[in-house]
Amino acid sequence: MSGYAFDWVDAFTDRAFGGNGCVVVHGAQDLPVRDRLALVRETSLSECAYLVGSDVADFGARYYLADREILMAGHPTIATVASLLNRGMVVLQDGKANFTLEVGAGVLPIAVTAQGECFRITMTQPAPVFGECCDPAEIAGIYGLQADDIIGPPQVVSTGTPFCITVLRDKGALRRAVLDVDNFRAFVARYGAVYPGVLEPFLVTLGGETAKGDSFSRLLLAPPHRAEDPFTGSATGCMGAYLWHHGLIETPEFVAEQGHWMGRPGHGYVEVLGPRDAISGVNVGGSGVVLMQGMLRP
């Protein structure tokens, strides 16, 4: 019986059952979209990745949520590269490799560095597009918070996928956040027409959950998705650009943490490229662990 080889990869972690899981399906160019979406729902993951080939890059992949394609996503990119490495499809020279990966939003430069038994996988996300600033009271109302729980203006930022970056005063506010689905859908209806593909506000606090971290974040999700994302690499790139641009971090390199309160600790290495007023891109890196392998037979 024919089928599609796949790897289940935990991304933005160096251990199994951490970070954010993603199924990476190989040779999936003829796999119908309905089956790509169905697999996301079947796994209850945030996204799945499908290798489809490319005419403009070394590899091509497409990413899907439970209900639609997402043009750029961070943890599926880390997972895709980890899968390519695990199957020997990327060869390192002197412990390093550089290549390109075409996703729905365009071509991403990828760098890989061996670090003991793990690999540091780094994607260069595009220069950020800073969009509209949102009313703090409106964003706070999505989560049962108060406007003064938010520091500075929430702002739509995109490094391939737009998120509303929202910096909270402390972790107490971050813990209290509970998604009001109706208010969230009203937010998407309002901003989605201006920023196609806009996703949930990304809630950020300065200071990590561990001593190694410099920021800690949450992304709460509405049905048909899981209730919360363990680690969100695309939003992390947007967050890095926002924090650097608005002077909320002293250096452009930092460690982002997410997922610890879910029992799935994840961490990413962020480097914002360029000066605060002329950012040229954002490097977001992490490791990936292949947890399972198998054959998909839809």
What order do the helices and strands come in, and which of them pair?
Blueprint: E1 4-11, E2 20-25, H1 33-43, E3 48-51, E4 59-64, E5 69-70, H2 74-86, E6 96-103, E7 106-115, E8 118-125, E9 129-133, H3 136-142, E10 150-158, E11 162-168, H4 171-176, H5 181-191, E12 201-206, E13 215-220, E14 228-229, H6 233-245, E15 253-258, E16 266-273, E17 281-286, E18 288-296
Parallel strand pairs: 2-3, 4-6, 11-12, 13-15
Antiparallel strand pairs: 1-2, 1-18, 3-4, 4-5, 6-7, 7-8, 8-17, 9-10, 10-11, 12-13, 13-14, 15-16, 16-17
Helix pairs in contact: 3-5
Approximate shape = globular
**Number of separate helices:** 6
Major sheet, described briefly?
Answer: 18 strands, mixed
Distance between the termini: 11 Å
At the first level of CATH, what is the class of the largest domain? Alpha Beta
- Roughly how many Å is the radius of gyration? 18 Å
Please report the total strand number as a whole number: 18
Tell me the CATH superfamily of the largest domain.
Diaminopimelate Epimerase, Chain A, domain 1
Q: Helix amount, in percent?
A: 10-25%
* Topology pattern, helix = H, strand = E: EEHEEEHEEEEHEEHHEEEHEEEE
CATH arch. level architecture of the largest domain? Roll
- Write down the overall mean pLDDT: 95
Strand content: 35-45%
What would you call the quaternary organization? single chain
Structural class label: alpha+beta
State the domain count.
2
CATH topology of the largest domain: Diaminopimelate Epimerase, Chain A, domain 1
Give a brief outline of the structure.
The chain is α+β, with helices and mostly antiparallel strands.
